[in-house]
């Protein structure tokens, strides 16, 4: 393991009633946490909350802890307790709808028409934190991380000046 400096803190919030009673049922939080660690972020174990539970409060704790990235998984479907997008949306100052559109498009290619039922939000909170809500399925998380892999560094560079050189006027 290298001793490279961290890129900062990142948080993972799992929204699942089943996993909140038995964390061994969480199949997506550890995947997201490992993905973030591979990219140089310091990540604690995922926080698990039940569907319809204290989602906004849990994401807010991550924001107050100066996380540069917060990724949620679960609660983006259409059951009566799937309310992650509604809980997270008020925390976002600047929406990035292209991220969720691309996640949904990739889901259509893999999972088929049921991917149309996933709802999500992505954006910037507090002018400094990238927040993305991913589906609770392993396929949805894989699609979401693939999309983030292509844009996360660029967004963080714009927010925090991480290796981002300003364009020259032409």
Map the helices and strands.
Elements: E1 9-15, H1 17-21, H2 29-38, E2 42-43, E3 47-49, H3 55-64, E4 69-73, H4 84-88, E5 94-95, H5 97-110, E6 122-125, E7 129-134, H6 138-160
Parallel strand pairs: 1-2, 1-3, 1-4, 4-7
Antiparallel strand pairs: 5-6, 6-7
Can you describe this structure?
There is one protein chain. This protein is α/β, with parallel strands linked by helices and 170 residues long. 39% of the residues lie in helices and 17% in strands. The chain is built from 6 helices and 7 strands. Strands 1, 2, 3, 4, 5, 6 and 7 form a 7-stranded mixed β-sheet that branches. Mean pLDDT is 92; it is low at 164-170.
Entry summary:
It is built from six helices and seven strands. It is an alpha/beta fold.
Keywords:
globular; alpha/beta; single chain; seven-stranded mixed beta sheet; disordered C terminus; 170 residues; 7 strands; 17% strand
């Amino acid at each position: 393991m290298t001793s490279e400096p961290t890129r900062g803190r990142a948080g993972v919030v799992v929204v699942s009633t089943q996993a909140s009673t038995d964390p061994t049922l969480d199949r997506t939080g550890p995947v997201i946490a490992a993905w973030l660690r591979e990219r140089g972020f310091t990540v604690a174990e995922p926080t698990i909350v039940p569907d319809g539970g204290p989602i906004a409060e849990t994401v807010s704790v991550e924001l107050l802890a100066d996380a540069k990235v917060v990724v949620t998984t679960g609660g983006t479907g259409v059951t009566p307790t799937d309310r992650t997008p509604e809980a997270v949306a008020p925390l976002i100052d600047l929406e990035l709808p292209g991220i969720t559109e691309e996640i949904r498009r990739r889901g259509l290619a893999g999972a088929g028409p049921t991917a149309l039922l996933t709802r999500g939000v992505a954006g910037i909170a507090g002018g400094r934190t990238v927040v993305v809500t991913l589906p609770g399925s392993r396929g949805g998380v894989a699609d979401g991380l693939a999309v983030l892999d292509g844009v996360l560094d660029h967004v963080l560079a714009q927010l925090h000046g991480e290796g981002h050189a300003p364009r020259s006027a032409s």
